[in-house]
Amino acid sequence: MAPLDTPMPRSQSMSMASVFERYGLLVFLVALMTVAALASPTFLRPANLVNVLTIAAPLGMVVVGQTFVILVRGLDLSVASLMATVAVLATAFKATTNEAIPMIFIAAIALSAVVGLVNGWLVAKRNVSPFLATLAMMIILQGIRFAYTGGAPISTLPPGMGFLASGRIFGVPVNLITLAFLAIAFGIVLHRSRLGREIFMVGSNPKAAFLNGVAPDRVVILCYVICSVCAGIGGLFLLGYVGTVSNWVGQGYELDSIVAAVMGGVALTGGRGNIFAALLGVAVLVVINNLVLLLGFPIEMQLIIKGVIIIGAAAFYRTRLA
């Protein structure tokens, strides 16, 4: 008879790890929703679920972009500050009709692309750590906002901004449509294009990618640009939801976007993950936040849970790579 402490075959252990990696988060989400439904019977009502998803949409947009950066072994701490800066930029348009909305989007995307370009250049060309480069950008953007607003909130928004939060097309919230478009479009880029293959190659092994004809610097810069553009778009939708501009609007999204991505299986070590699983991480994070409130726990509990998730995800992927 085999001893009770006989180690599990490595192949079987790896197989179980793969199953957990693929389906564990979905099972966890179902369990969380079950607990939330028991805590509040109204939680699973369609209207409430749509409302929860609507609130989560701006974060989902940021996570789409953050996924690209993490895949190439980076992170972007400037996304929340960029969201607030884009929101302030939107208030500079003094239009009286909805015709300003396209121009606001163009300006927001242009500003975001420049921010991403600078972040990517610092990381790829100047070898600045992603943490320091994006932290510096976060502080710079904060300074620009405070110089423009004087630290005071802005409550006068251009017409049409509210539509970004409450508008519907064929009964579907416009922010969810936008999130779906970004996820599908960038999902195709990531999994069905040459750039996507290069991103995974650079994230897995930059030196090997270079030897195979890939320009790692170009790929990294593009990932930071994509991340910033997604954050800028998310900032506009967040502005439409909150209805006023504070210098701290979006605060915490930099951490939440990283937590959601790693929960969804995007490896902090790079080269592993996908957008749609990362968005599942957003759903889990939003349900956790709601559950903390439903159960009457202190709001600080959310921060503790997020920290534990990051540590657990990092340990899990380190074990997988061992």
Automatic annotation (TrEMBL):
Question: What membrane topology is annotated for this entry?
Answer: Multi-pass membrane protein
- One annotated GO molecular function: transmembrane transporter activity
What is any Pfam family matched here?
BPD_transp_2
Keyword terms, alphabetized? Cell inner membrane, Cell membrane, Membrane, Transmembrane, Transmembrane helix, Transport
Bilayer-crossing residues are 49-72, 103-124, 131-148, 168-190, 219-242, 275-297
CDD domains this protein is in? TM_PBP1_transp_AraH_like (cd06579)
The Gene Ontology CC terms held by the record are: plasma membrane
Compartments (UniProt record): Cell membrane
Q: Which domain of life is it from?
A: Bacteria
> Where does it primarily localize?
membrane
Q: How does it assemble?
A: The complex is composed of two ATP-binding proteins (LsrA), two transmembrane proteins (LsrC and LsrD) and a solute-binding protein (LsrB).
Q: What role is this protein assigned?
A: Part of the ABC transporter complex LsrABCD involved in autoinducer 2 (AI-2) import. Probably responsible for the translocation of the substrate across the membrane.
Q: What is this protein called?
A: Autoinducer 2 import system permease protein LsrD
This protein's species is Rhizobium loti
